[in-house]
Amino acid sequence: MQLMLSFFTYIHQIVLNFYLVDAKLVRKFALVTGFIPFAMMVSIAYTPLGPWVLENVMSVQGELLEQSLWTLRAFVLFPLIFPFLDFSNGLILLRGQTKTMFRSQTANAICTVIVLLILVSIFPAWNGMIGAVAQSLGLLAELVIVWLVIRRTKQEPTMSVPKARKSTSLKG
Hints:
By secondary structure, the chain is an all-alpha fold. The protein is flat and about 50 Å long.
């Protein structure tokens, strides 16, 4: 899965470098390329291509092959969410709202742990699927926090330096 995502983990850099030049084109690029990792994951997890790749390229067979396919199927949300989170994080960085990233990543960690604990207690036989679902839902929680901040502030990013506050100290 990481191989499929790795080419799309720098969308925030495209936002940082080109959003102020042509925001519409950057949004279009992110929208078009954002679905590529998802399409790749679906093609591996849900078509005959998946077992063929796992067997012939990676030499996976038997029970490991079946469990790998189930885990990839459970991971299908992750590559759908990640490129849009990366784009949104680029906007947050461009706005200088980096505290949002700490909050969103904290939400990700908390959600991931809670989902892990719930799924392990209810469906312990799910094995690797538990981690896949937990990570995907944690990433979704992170995206929701970032999107809420972006929608709430509704400010367009700028590269201007914030004005300094006037000093209230007594000079004398």
